[in-house]
Design brief:
This protein has one domain. The protein has 160 residues and is mostly helical. It is rod-shaped and about 210 Å long. It is built from 1 helix and no strands.
Length: 160
C-alpha cells in the first residue's frame, strides 16, 4: 500500500508540476492576450483617428473642389466680360471714326452735286445740239431729196 501511496504521491507531484506549468502557461497566455488586446485597442484607436483625419481631409477636398469650381465660373465670367469690353471698345472706335466718315461723305456728296449740275448743264447743251443736229439732218435729207429730185428732173428735161 505504501507503494501505492508513493505512486499516488508521485502522480500528485507530477500533477502539481503539470498544474503549475499549465498555470504558468495560462498566465503567459493571459499576459499575451492582454498585450494583444491592448495592441488591438491601440489599433482601433489609431484607425478611428485615421478615419477622422480622412473625413477631415475629404471635407477639405470638397471645399477645395467647390472653391475651384467657383473660381472656374469666375474665370469664365471674366473672359466673357473681357470679350464684351473689347467688343464695346471696337464699337467705340468705330463710332469715333463715324463723324469723320460723315464729313467725308458730305464732302463727296457736295462734290458729286457740283459734278451733277455740270453734267446736267452739259446734257441740256447736248440736247439742244442734238435737236439742232436732228433738224440739220432732216434739212440735209430734204436737201438731198430735193437735189436728187432736181437732178432727176434735170435729166428728164434734158433727155425727154
Amino acid at each position: 500500500m505504501q507503494e501505492e501511496y508513493v505512486s499516488k504521491l508521485q502522480e500528485l507531484r507530477e500533477a502539481k508540476a503539470k498544474a503549475f506549468e499549465l498555470e504558468h502557461l495560462l498566465e503567459e497566455e493571459v499576459s499575451e492576450l492582454s498585450l494583444l488586446s491592448a495592441q488591438h485597442q491601440a489599433l482601433i484607436q489609431h484607425s478611428n483617428e485615421l478615419e477622422a483625419r480622412l473625413l477631415q481631409k475629404d471635407l477639405e477636398l470638397r471645399e477645395a473642389q467647390d472653391e475651384l469650381a467657383f473660381l472656374a465660373e469666375i474665370r469664365i465670367t471674366k473672359e466673357k466680360a473681357e470679350k464684351e469690353v473689347e467688343r464695346l471698345r471696337d464699337r467705340i472706335r468705330a463710332l469715333e471714326s463715324y463723324p469723320m466718315e460723315v464729313l467725308r461723305l458730305a464732302e463727296d456728296n457736295k462734290s458729286l452735286r457740283i459734278k451733277n449740275r455740270e453734267l446736267s448743264t452739259k446734257i441740256e447743251s447736248l440736247e439742244i445740239i442734238k435737236k439742232k443736229y436732228y433738224a440739220q439732218t432732216q434739212h440735209l435729207l430734204q436737201m438731198n431729196s430735193l437735189r436728187d429730185a432736181l437732178l432727176l428732173a434735170n435729166d428728164r428735161l434734158r433727155y425727154p
